Structures are given as C-alpha cells and as structure tokens.
Amino acid sequence: MMPFERLDAWRLCHQLVLAVYRASKAFPDDEKYGLVSQVRRAAFSAAANIAEGSARRGPREFRRFLDISLGSLAEVAYALIVARDLSYLSHKQWKELSAMQRDAGRTTWGLYRSMSNAAHRL
Prior knowledge:
The structure is a single chain. The protein is mostly helical. The protein is 78% helix and 0% strand. Helix 1 (8-24) packs antiparallel against helix 4 and helix 2 packs antiparallel against helix 3.
C-alpha cells in the first residue's frame, strides 16, 4: 500500500473520481472534450495532488499540494452544478456526487489544517 492510500482524504477523492467517471459517461457526446473532460480532470487532480503531495518533503510542501486539491474540488462542485443545470445529471445523481465532493473537501481541509499546524511547529 502506498502511503497516500492510508489517507482518508485521498480515499474519498479517489471514490469521487470513480463516481465522476461513471456519471459523466452518460453526458452527451458533444461534451466529450468540454464538460466531461473538465470535471474528470478536476476530480483526478484532487486525488492526484494528495498522492503527489504526500511524497514531498515536509508538511509545508504537502500543504501546497493540498491547497491545489481543494481548488480542484471546488472546480468539481461547479462542474456538477453546470451538469445538473444542463440536465446531464438527475437531481438525485447531483445530490450524491455533491455529497461525495463535500465529504472529500471537508476531509481534505482537515488534513490541510493538520499539516498547517505541523508546519508551524517546525
């Protein structure tokens, strides 16, 4: 098991990536290089930045990657709103994905805060 796989924030982001990929399969073909690509890349970025940051030296550097991950999660939230408003997602799908995004964000934010505290102790 890689060290990042032990992190709840990464696990929740990874589950979000999988759910976003599954849900976006049903988006219209003309969104393949638009919204589908954007929401998938943002979700992937959230998980990938946690993985990459966990391999960096020290809490300050890890925190920088967590900050990027949090930005990507905000981008996912907006992309899901657009998909809902364009009726690419049902309200139920949107609620489920949004709940996953919020949980991933809340947990990543908690990890960010703990890394901030660790960085200040150095």
